[in-house]
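ERR on first pass: missing label on line 2. Operator R.T. fixed the label and resubmitted. Corrected input:
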Amino acid sequence: QQQVKQSPQSLIVQKGGISIINCAYENTAFDYFPWYQQFPGKGPALLIAIRPDVSEKKEGRFTISFNKSAKQFSLHIMDSQPGDSATYFCAAASGGSNYKLTFGKGTLLTVNP
Amino acid sequence: DVKVTQSSRYLVKRTGEKVFLECVQDMDHENMFWYRQDPGLGLRLIYFSYDVKMKEKGDIPEGYSVSREKKERFSLILESASTNQTSMYLCASSRTWPQHFGDGTRLSIL
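pass 2 clean. output:
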């Protein structure tokens, strides 16, 4: 059973455009929602994370939008740059989980110059 | 900066061999994790450990075991390697959040 569904699987955006990646979850006990960024040959690295007590969190060009009632959250990358080309993973976890994460399947983002 | 080091970037082994993947972290983290990453499947948790000598199964533990004799080191063991275990293996550690990842070991089983 896939508990975190991520879409799209791949995304191509022009430089300066907005990249949007969506995730949906099923487990209402989840209370921590991070996004990880992975470049080729590297491990995933935390990009930004949100807890369900806020509906939006922004760090630079990266924004998480969170909709608790719909059990959905999304990553928006404003003014996308070729250097943003990477694989992005959403994830979710619950407080009593020994800090285990459940990951989405990933989105390969390509930003064309 | 947290450093999670995986002993090998690339590894080639034969079916039936016993394979050891090693991971070391330098931040005194209690929690350590082993994932495998396959195209289109994302990251799937194999095993994790929340203390020395403690371990719990993740989502896909079959064919794997783990060892944590020291806090900084977490080993993944393929008891009898099979071709369907060819994959990228990622180790991570954390105290709470976030998890910090190593750069992975690409394992090929021939």
